[in-house]
Amino acid sequence: MNFISENLIPLLLPPSPCNECCSACPWTRILVFFLIWWLIYYALKFVARKEPEYRCRCITLIHGVLTTCFTMTDIISTKQNFDLNLKIPLTDFQFYFLSITLSYFIYDLIWINLIGAEPIAIHLHHICSILLLSKVMTSDTGGPGVSYGLFGLEFTNPYLQLRWFLRTHGYHNRPIHIVVELWFMFTFVFIRSVGGTLLLYFVEVHPEVDIFLKIAFIGIYIVSWLLVVQVIQFYKKKYMNLYPLLSGSVLSIFPYRRRIRNHTSNAS
């Protein structure tokens, strides 16, 4: 892991710390990433001829994969061993992926208000995330807790987008679609409920955490539970008749056996 921290991370960062050379540098970087998200969005429109939701989900997938990889790299390379001391100053690498995430949430909040039609829970989730990330970057504190929190928020996002793409491209209720869907449900509910509760506890009992951060964490925690309830309700409704759905999907993997079965039933 020393190779990652000594060779990979410096390639992604400017040669000098942002918070030392120029206080406006993180916000300039946020603006640049914000423009990049929109550039990709319109490039998919004019080059790939994709619909607005398709383009937006492509960007969401890119952001989810990048954030998950960056936060996982930070957690492994810093070797903090679950030290959630939220008063540790942010590293340059943390400023880097915080800028990516904050710019994405600003972009996506604008998109869902102008073009998309998302439930109120998503709007509240984005607003709380923007406020929380802005406060963390402004105060220059958060330590490993920032990486753990963002990893938990974005780890399940790529699976959600993959589920949508599989359904869009004709794999709805196929075995691969069902596996991705069930995996997303399990990881989303577990991380948001168990992981989110543990992180909220560490934040709320920490004596030096700003009251604004505590309130913002509570806001995201409440919204996360609203989303968890929605996910559970959806899967409960869809998979109420779980056995017939799965049996039909599994049989589709073995078309030869299915043809024999159909031939036998017709002959009888």
Automatic annotation (TrEMBL):
> What parts of the sequence cross the membrane?
26-44, 56-76, 96-116, 182-203, 215-235
Q: Where is the TLC domain?
A: 49-238
Principal subcellular localisation of the protein: membrane
- Where is this protein localized, as stated in its record? Membrane
Q: Which top-rank group of organisms is this from?
A: Eukaryota
Asked if the keyword DNA-binding belongs to this entry, the reply reads no
Keywords for this protein? Membrane, Transmembrane, Transmembrane helix
Record has Ribosomal protein as a keyword: no
> What is the topology of this protein in the membrane according to its UniProt annotation?
Multi-pass membrane protein
Q: For this UniProt entry, which residues form the secretion signal?
A: none
A Pfam family annotated for this chain is TRAM_LAG1_CLN8
Q: Name one GO cellular component term.
A: membrane
The protein in question is named TLC domain-containing protein
Species name for this entry?
Menopon gallinae (poultry shaft louse)
